[in-house]
Predict the 3D structure of the following.
Amino acid sequence: MPKSVGILAVALFTVACASMKSDSGLGRATVDIVKPEILIEQVSAVPAVARHVEGAIPIRYQLRVANRSAEPITMKTVTVNSMGYGAYRVETTSRPFQTVVAPDTFQVVEFWVPAMIDDASIMGANGPVTLRLAVQFDSPVGQFQEVVTRQVNAMPGREGAQ
C-alpha cells in the first residue's frame, strides 16, 4: 500500500473517531435508556385566501419530547422531511438544538422549515402531510437517535390532526 493511502486512511479514521464524541464523552456507545416520546404538531396555517396556491411556504412546527427515563437527555438535532404525497413537500431539513429534558418531564420546542406546494389539493396547503423525524439525543450514558413517522395537519378536527 502506498504511503499516501496509509496516511489518508489514518486521517479518515481520526476524523471518524472525533465525530463520535459527545457531551457525555461516551460517543455512540450502546445506550440502554427508555426511549423518549416524540410528538409533532403543525402550528402554522395558510390563510383561507391562499389555501390553493402553489409554491414555497414556511411551516412552523411544535415538537414535544417527553423523557421517560431516569437520565436527563439533551436534544441535539431534529431532521425532518415529508414522505409520500401530502398537502406540501418538505425537503430534508435539520435544525440544531441544545434542549435538556429532565427525567420524567417534557420540553416543547418550535421551529420553522421551508415547504413547497407542488400541486394544491382539495384541502389546500392545510391538508395532511406525513413527516419523518430523526431526532439526535445525548445523555450521560451516550448518544442515541429516535426516528418516528407522524402525520400532521393544520386543520384541527380533521382526520390525521394531532
The helical segments are 3-19. The chain has a mean pLDDT of 82. Residues 3-19 form the longest helix (17 residues). Residues 74 and 138 are 5 Å apart (CA to CA).
